Amino acid sequence: ASCADRAAHPCIGHERADLVVAGCAILDAICRLWPVGALSVADRGVREGMLLSMMRADGLLATP
């Protein structure tokens, strides 16, 4: 797909259209080095995960 096609995709957008191919290449290289049966994709960023962990550790959020 062209950069314009990637930019038109709602999950990629214009800001990331030029980066997604490089990101996929990096992910492919990692998966070749460390093969796994499944891959989980987070729908939130690292900061949100860190915040949730800190809130759980402080007892401010229940553990699922």
Give a summary of the structure in a few sentences.
The chain has 64 residues and is mostly helical.
Topology:
Blueprint: H1 3-8, H2 13-16, H3 20-33, H4 46-57
Please, could you describe this protein's structure?
With 64 residues, this protein is mostly helical. It has one domain. Helix content is 56%, strand content 0%. It contains 4 helices and no strands. It is flat, with a radius of gyration of 16 Å. The protein starts with a helix and ends in a 7-residue tail after the last helix.
* Number of contiguous helices: 4
The helix-and-strand class reads mainly alpha
Whole-number average pLDDT? Answer: 89
Query: What is the total domain count?
Result: 1
Assign a percent range to the helix content: 55-70%
Subunit arrangement of the protein: single chain
Q: What gyration radius follows from the Cα positions, in whole Å?
A: 16 Å
**Main β sheet profile:** none
Low-confidence stretches: none
How many beta-strand runs?
0
